[in-house]
Amino acid sequence: MKYPLIILVFVFLFTACEDQVPIAYGPPSNLGDQKLVIEEFTGVQCVNCPQGSDEISSYVASYPGKVIPISVHSGFFSTPVPGKSKLDFRTPDGDFIYNYIGPPPFYPSAVFNRKIFSNSDLVYNQESWAGNVKKVLESPAKYGLSLETTYDASSREVIITINGIAKENIDDKILAHVMITESNIVEWQKYPNAEGFITDYVHKHVLRGIVSNFTGDQVAENPKTKQQFSKKYTYKLKDGWVAENCEVVGFITYASKKEIIQADSKEVIE
């Protein structure tokens, strides 16, 4: 009679293990899987850049909620069209990124989670973009990340909170980075057509400013699985920026290298 009892207990324990609820990595909520930041080097005087922008838009559509573009206007091709351009998309913040992870040897070119895929390069030409996107999005997420935003229209200040939780032990310091981009900006753009330009080109994901320190802010050191962090920023949108078209981009990197571990984005006004 002892054996059936032992078997019954074993079956019960096995069933209980099978029905266990997986560990939930929250708060914060909406952690998702691996996300990808594409930092695109572009410019209003780059005739081939619109096709690069179109390809990045196709990734955004193909991988909903997973691909976060940032268009960095810096370098020779970012110079406004003389006598034509009303706006200048160049910023000291964009110049910093241009030199920190570039400079790009060609336009259009892009960086994918600041990850090195071959030849110790961070910047890649358009031929390799699709493969790099796939490699990043297929990798397991080591961190969960989420953003919260509150916007005050009267002061034009946005309060940004970036939250994170480790999904595994990481032997490094973790740095948080926060940026503002703006889309739906109608301006001149060189274009491969008979006129050689478009007067009403719609620029998307234009880098407007870096909210955090340029090289990031430390939020964790050698984090263990399920260890959380939360950091708050306050940033005033400049005059001329349309808050409804602005987006907050947040991501974390290792301190020992530039690679992005995880990212998230959220509109300033939802």
Describe it.
The protein has one domain: Immunoglobulin-like (Sandwich), CATH 2.60.40.10. The N terminus is likely disordered. Helix 2 links the parallel strand 1 and strand 2. It has 270 residues and is of the alpha+beta class. The strands form 4 sheets. Strands 7, 10, 11, 13 and 14 form a 5-stranded antiparallel beta sheet that branches. Strands 2-1-3-4 form a 4-stranded mixed beta sheet, with helices on both faces.
Number of beta-strand segments? 14
Give the count of structural domains.
1
Q: What is the CATH topology assignment?
A: Immunoglobulin-like
The whole-angstrom Rg is 22 Å
Shape: globular
- CATH classification class: Mainly Beta
What gap, in angstroms, lies between the N and C termini?
66 Å
Helix content: 10-25%
Mean pLDDT, to the nearest integer, reads 88
Keywords summarizing the entry:
single chain; 18% helix; 4 helices; four-stranded mixed β-sheet; 37% strand; 14 strands; Immunoglobulin-like; alpha+beta; 270 residues; disordered N terminus; five-stranded antiparallel β-sheet
Quick overview of this protein structure:
The protein has 270 residues and is α+β, with helices and mostly antiparallel strands. It contains four helices and 14 strands. It has a single domain (34-267), classed as Immunoglobulin-like (Sandwich), CATH 2.60.40.
